[in-house]
Structures are given as structure tokens and as C-alpha cells.
DNA sequence: CCCTTCCAGTGGTATGACCACTTTCAACCA
DNA sequence: TGGTTGAAAGTGGTCATACCACTGGAAGGG
């Protein structure tokens, strides 16, 4: 009979996916394990080899399999680089999602900084500190400055020592890195921006060192809010200038 | 000659991917556009249909294509829902990460509840409220109670109206749903738990209605912390009882 | 005019064959 | 005896062809 051939009444591709989900959750497949050959797997799952290959390819694209020609397919720890590819594509399609991704960034950082206040060690402090120094040295260079700003925030998230938060942060980081630089280019000419940047970041840093979660989160939120404010001001300035000097 | 057949000297699958990357970034393929049929595409790209299908499947899994049986493949705006698949597989690989995922949950909810205070409308209020009522009705049933607890928190996140946060929450929620029920089963017998659950959730709800972000986040964090506390107590109780009454 | 039926086009699956790469090991030569 | 070589087996990579299942519209009948 055509139905209930193996165990699932699922058809085709979905059968393969559910098989892997089960195997992984049950622990039958561990990291580094080698899968059966495509021919054996297709036979045992009751699907054709092309169908099986479509599923394996998809899993490989998500980063869960490492398929090597002539050797076989191996279970791999999913790596985040897929997600950065994904976000890059999606940004090309709808640039307006960046604002919303910012909400995710704020969420992650605010929780991570609380954890950092509890968990960070001296090595974390010195790492964050060095990025802060770097940030102060590059105030006049939008590109290097944006990069330093970005790595400063990354080091805070890392100091939280939560794999889940770090993973999520990395997933959106490719977008954030670019936006850091763009923002710097926008706001570099706003009066008082240099002093503000130094003070804001230093206060955030000091709150972590003081191991005061409430203060740290509060400072960080203020930092984000004021950053928004500066960006609005720079837009206003740009448009005002455009009105009096229509061409560049 | 075998090489330089079309334009790229790439072979097979990679040729298909690079083709789509170019088409998408160049704007030749817009949202909602219908792709050529698999047979035509395969012919025009100089690859076989199975190979083309592997690539299309992978793109569909990443959310960039919507393939419909009998109709064709359409270019789709990739939403962030791929993250759900990603995290499902991801955590299947390392089940011990579940405690850490809780940090992600806290991060998302605390930011979402702040947004909810600004953005939520009457419909959101009534939805959250109804889930709160449901929660109060199911205090004695660990399963239904855990489910109600879960949906209450979901409705808060939805009220924040941030697609990125909602998606991330969905991604980790499949794990959390199970843990909600398990926790209820653990803590259902702890003295005072019923009153606490009602009060804590009601206060969180009222803070949202009052549109007070700081209070709402504070209550929510307390809720999480006290939940931890209750769980610890129940463990202590269970082990103490086990010492005096070794069986069951 | 509406409903039914059929058909062409599409994705979904299956089969079998062949190619390219990797590893192994046995045969061969020094 | 020891080292080198190359043949064979097993793997993923690709291809061609055929057929099935679903969709939608056109042609036919009521």
C-alpha cells in the first residue's frame, strides 16, 4: 500500500525533516556524527535520492550539516553566519526592518548588561575598557569610530556570558555594524556629539564595573534614546541646510 | 567546451545561488514576481532540474521563495520566521542550553513590555486581560494553567507590536511552552503560590494599562526572579520529603 | 448562462545511470 | 623488506527521463 509505508503518513520532503528533528532531539544524532550514505538513507526513509538530497541541502544551507564530496555528511553545530546572510538579503528587500531590529538589539543588550554586572570578570572589564579607549581615539573618523562603537557594545554582550544572547546578537550584528558607521556619518557634525559619546559610553562602562544592574541598564537605555535624538537633530540640520543651499 | 558555458565558470548548485543573488540585488526580481518554470530555468542556467530544485528548496527554506504546487515559485519578502526552524534544530543539538534560553526570554519580554506600554491599544488590553482571567481559572490544573501562563506572556509580547521581537519570542517559545507546564507541576503545591501567581500577573497587566514602562519592566523582572525562588523552594521541599519519605 | 469536464502547465517524486572526489589496500617495483 | 603506485570501492554531484498530483482555464454540455 502507498500509505503508512514506514511510520509517518507524511509525504516526501517533510518526512525527512521530521526524521532529523526526532533523531536530534532523541540524541541519536550527536555533533560530528556521520550520516548514512544518501543511498542508504533514501532507502531507509522510503524516499528517492533527489528528494533526500533536497532536504539535506536545505539543512546544510541552514548550517546543520557539513556535506563533503567523497566523504559524507556530518552533523555540525549550526553557525550563525547563515543568519547574517539572511539578514543581508532581507535588508536588501525591505530596508525599513532595520528600525525594528533595533528593538531586538536594545532587548538583548539591556539584558546582557545586567548579566555582565553579575558575571563579568577582570578580563571582561579590561576588554571593554580597551574598546572604550579605542572609541575615544577615533572620534573624528566616522568609519573607525563606528567600528569602535560597535565592538564596545559587542564586548558588553560577551561579558554577559549568555550563549543565547550572544548568538542572537551576532545574528543581527551584521546589520548593526553598518548602521553604526552610517549613524556616525550622520551625527559627526552635530555640536556636542564628541563629549556626549565619551561620557555616555564611559558611564555605561563604569556602571558595569560598579556591578549595578539597574544603573547600567538605565544608562544604556538613555544612551539609545539620546542617540535617537541626535539622529533626529542631524536630519533636521541636513534638511534645513538643504533648504538654504539646495545643491550639496 | 564544458567551461564558460553560460557566463559563470561556477559549477552546478553555486551557479544557481549566484544567479539569484544578482537578480535580487539588481532589482530584476521584485517581490511577488513569478519565477520561470523549473524546466525553463534549468535549461537557461545550464543545469539539470534536480540541481535547480535543490537550490530553490534551500532558498524556500530561508524564506525567499514561496513555492506552490501546480502554480509556480514566487519571490517573497523573507520574514524572520526562519529563525524558528533555526533555533528548533539549534537547541535540539544542545539541550542543556535551555536555562540560558531563559535569558533570551527575559530580554525579549522586558523590551516588549516597554513597547506595549507605548503601543498597545484597547484590543491588546482586552486580549491580555482575557488571558489573565483564564490564568486565574486554571490555577489548580498544572497543564491548563501552564498553557494559560504561557499565552498570557505571549499576548504581552504581541502587544509590543515589534515583528523582530515577536519572531524571536516565537523562536524560543516552543521550548518555553513545555517548561511552563513543568514548572507548574513543580510549584503547584508550594504554599502561597496561587495568590502569588494571581497578584504578580495582575500587577504586570495593570502596569501596562497604566502605560508605565519602568514599573512594568520592574514588575516583570520581579516576577521572573520570584518564579526562580519558588522553583528553588519546591526543589528543596521535594528533596526534604524524599529524605523522610523515600518513595513517591 | 452556468456548470461540468477535460487538458495543458506546473511542481513533486521516482529511477537509473554516470561523473568526480576520497580513502584504502593490495600489487608492484626498488 | 619496504616504499610507492594505482586500482577499486564508497561517497557525494550531476544528469536525463518518465510519471504522478495539483492548479487553472478553456471547451463542451446542460
TrEMBL record, chains A, B:
Gene3D superfamilies: GntR ligand-binding domain-like (1.20.120.530), Winged helix-like DNA-binding domain superfamily/Winged helix DNA-binding domain (1.10.10.10). CDD domains: WHTH_GntR. It comes from the Bacteria. Keywords: DNA-binding, Transcription, Transcription regulation. Residues 10-78 form the HTH gntR-type domain. SUPFAM superfamilies: GntR ligand-binding domain-like, Winged helix' DNA-binding domain. Coiled coil: none annotated. The keyword DNA-binding applies. This is FadR family transcriptional regulator. The lineage of its organism: Bacteria, Pseudomonadati, Pseudomonadota, Alphaproteobacteria, Hyphomicrobiales.
Amino acid at each position: 500500500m502507498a500509505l503508512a509505508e514506514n511510520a509517518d503518513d507524511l509525504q516526501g520532503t517533510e518526512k525527512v525533516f521530521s526524521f532529523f528533528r526526532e533523531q536530534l532531539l532523541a540524541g541519536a544524532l550527536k555533533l560530528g556524527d556521520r550520516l548514512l550514505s544518501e543511498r542508504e538513507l533514501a532507502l531507509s526513509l522510503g524516499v528517492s535520492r533527489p528528494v533526500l538530497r533536497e532536504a539535506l541541502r536545505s539543512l546544510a544551507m541552514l548550517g546543520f550539516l557539513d556535506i563533503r564530496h567523497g566523504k559524507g555528511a556530518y552533523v555540525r553545530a549550526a553557525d550563525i553566519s547563515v543568519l547574517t546572510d539572511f539578514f543581508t538579503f532581507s535588508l536588501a528587500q525591505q530596508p525599513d526592518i532595520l528600525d525594528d531590529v533595533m528593538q531586538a538589539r536594545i532587548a538583548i543588550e539591556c539584558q546582557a548588561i545586567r548579566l555582565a554586572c553579575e558575571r563579568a570578570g577582570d578580563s571582561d572589564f579590561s576588554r571593554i575598557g580597551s574598546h572604550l579607549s579605542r572609541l575615544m581615539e577615533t572620534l573624528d573618523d566616522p568609519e573607525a569610530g563606528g567600528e569602535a562603537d560597535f565592538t564596545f557594545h559587542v564586548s558588553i554582550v560577551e561579558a554577559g556570558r549568555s550563549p543565547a544572547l550572544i548568538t542572537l546578537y551576532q545574528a543581527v550584528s551584521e546589520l548593526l555594524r553598518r548602521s553604526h558607521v552610517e549613524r556616525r556619518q550622520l551625527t559627526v557634525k552635530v555640536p556636542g556629539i564628541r563629549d556626549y559619546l565619551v561620557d555616555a559610553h564611559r558611564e555605561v562602562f563604569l556602571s558595569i564595573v560598579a556591578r549595578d544592574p539597574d544603573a547600567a541598564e538605565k544608562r544604556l537605555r538613555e544612551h539609545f534614546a539620546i542617540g535617537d535624538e541626535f539622529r533626529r537633530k542631524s536630519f533636521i540640520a541636513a534638511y534645513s541646510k538643504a533648504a538654504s543651499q539646495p545643491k550639496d
